[in-house]
Prior knowledge:
The chain is α+β, with helices and mostly antiparallel strands and 282 residues long. 35% of the residues lie in helices and 14% in strands.
Amino acid sequence: MSALPEPLPTALGLAAIGVPVLPLRAGKAPFGNCRQCVDNACGGRPNMKNAGPCDCPGVCHAWAAATTDPAVLTSPAWLAAWRRAVCVAYHPGAAGLTVVDLDDPAAVDWARTTLPATRTVKTTRGQHWIYRGAMSSHNAVRPGVDIKSTMSYARYLGPGTGTPTALPDTVRALALKEPSPVRPAPQAVTMPAGPGGGECPHRTPAYLARGIAMAEQRITDARSAVHATVYRTFLAVLSTHGRCGCLTDTHVARLFTAAQAKGETLRHCTDAWTNARTRLGL
Length: 282
């Protein structure tokens, strides 16, 4: 019998202890949906809230593809993905865990003085602090800090050091927004054109075109933290052009297409766009 392709042995070991796993491709992003599942044409995983099978045998739906089933992990379609994979990811929330992703030394210093000690894992630029207990995932809760739990994935970078402790209220509080003034109900992703047939009233059309192109490139160039990059890029575009009515369906579609090319699902794109609009009060 031939040897299992890397990093499948690591994934099988994690699955054996109840941690749902999935492969990540180059760029540390999930594999894109197959043709049958593109744009969730298959109906997606159950409400996109729980890991579980769909009719597609492949590694589709990003974090929702994570599984502990060895028969799925070693199926022909998954073996093909593992042979191309660069690392293993897991769905923290489905394993009853929350990962506080600290993306730089300043964020690590903040955690050391603010959060209770728990298991820590070194990352390329910072650390993952892993707690027992699941919560909703949120990006950019403070500078250099993301929360990965339900409906998200985290790279597996080794067992780390220390023992996971209970998820503290301090971390849960990071996801709570401060009360804000009454604002209009969130609008749909499609934004109406402003005066002048969609031309920005305070900038030239060339400024908008250049901004959209730069936003696409920023997403395309992301090598890690793709979720966070997409959200921050959407936030930047909306902060500049979200109130003047110059964004059109075409502009939004270009940003979504760039994000989906990096492995994001349409649901992820829609959630990131909605979250950015909500944060800006649009």
